[in-house]
Amino acid sequence: MSEKSINIDDKLLKHLQELSHLKLEQDEQETLKNDINKILHYIEKLKEVDIEDVDKQITPVENKLELREDEPVRFEYREKIIDLFPDSENHYLKVPKIY
């Protein structure tokens, strides 16, 4: 099964700009298109690496991580932050809707 390689052309870049709500100048578009294509090309090269004999459980961290107990700690500046915030209700910070 062969995988099709992705290539960022002007049409796809325009679509990505619309999805991300970006407005790029022509020179920025060319730079971004080239950068993304280089990244995708590099990823394609990585797919060529033979990892068949590599242990999937290998890790660079040899020491076992020790877990700590979960202990709640009271944040001493909570009330000050709430007082400084422009709008709050019942100890919650009110922010404008994003969409």
Can you walk through the features of this model?
The chain is mainly α. It has a domain at 10-47. The protein is built from three helices and two strands. A hairpin with a 2-residue loop joins strand 1 and strand 2 (92-93). The chain is flat and about 55 Å long. The mean pLDDT is 87.
What descriptors fit this protein?
99 residues; 2 strands; 40% helix; single chain; mainly alpha
How much strand? under 5%
State the helix count. 3
Q: How many whole angstroms does the radius of gyration measure? A: 24 Å
What is the distance, rounded to the nearest whole angstrom, between the alpha carbons of the first and last residues? 42 Å
Strand order of the largest sheet: 1-2
Q: Give the H and E element order.
A: HHHEE
Judging from the principal axes of the Cα atoms, what is the shape? flat
Please state the structural category.
mainly alpha
